[in-house]
Amino acid sequence: MQLPSPLLRGRLIKRYKRFLADIALDDGREITAHCANPGSMLGVALPDTRVWVHEHGNPKRKLAFSWEMVEIGTTLIPINTINPNKIVLEAVEAGAIPKLTGYDSIRREVKYGEASRIDLLLEGGKHRHPCYVEVKNVHLSRAPGLAEFPDSVTTRGAKHLGELSRIAASGTRAVMLFVVQRSDCTRFRPAADLDPAYASALILAISAGVETLCYDCEVSLSAVVLRHRLDIELD
Hints:
This protein is α/β, with parallel strands linked by helices. 16% of the residues lie in helices and 44% in strands. A 6-stranded mixed β-sheet has the order 7-8-9-12-14-15. The protein is globular and about 60 Å long. The two termini are 33 Å apart.
């Protein structure tokens, strides 16, 4: 997935009201950027952290800048939670996820369950049944090499696991796919201390037949691409 270009470098002053961030750009300007991330952003929204923004130049938008990335140490971490769906779509179309190949139709945001929408619905090809794929963005890492989700309580995330469980129980394929938007992790674990209900729901979903996949990403200032499959730890 290509990122907006060019990206401008700066330092985070503060993030507030979830969708706003004050940033001091390296060129001396202080700007307010849109933050496309409704989560807590634990560990990636620290004041004085190096960040990258895009000046989109669209006069119809309220804010002229969008916060795209944070740099922690030497690791670039995209913060836009819309990215993973695009990243996975490109990867599936390219046949880069072996477990999700062999389908000839991909639909996005399809209604299902109780007022829910599945991120990707794969159909046709050599498969008799469709495959429901729920995608979650991951950027939390509190220990070397370990990616975690969620970074705060997510009742919506637990609801999605329940929906997937019902799909799997009906005999249709259901997949929970975690996308780690960083390249410094080798394994994934649910953050049970931050949201024990979600961790329990994930285990129940797996027991109901929901498949789990986790991939990290290759990240540069120009693109984010799905890369390696990571091990999932549930203990």
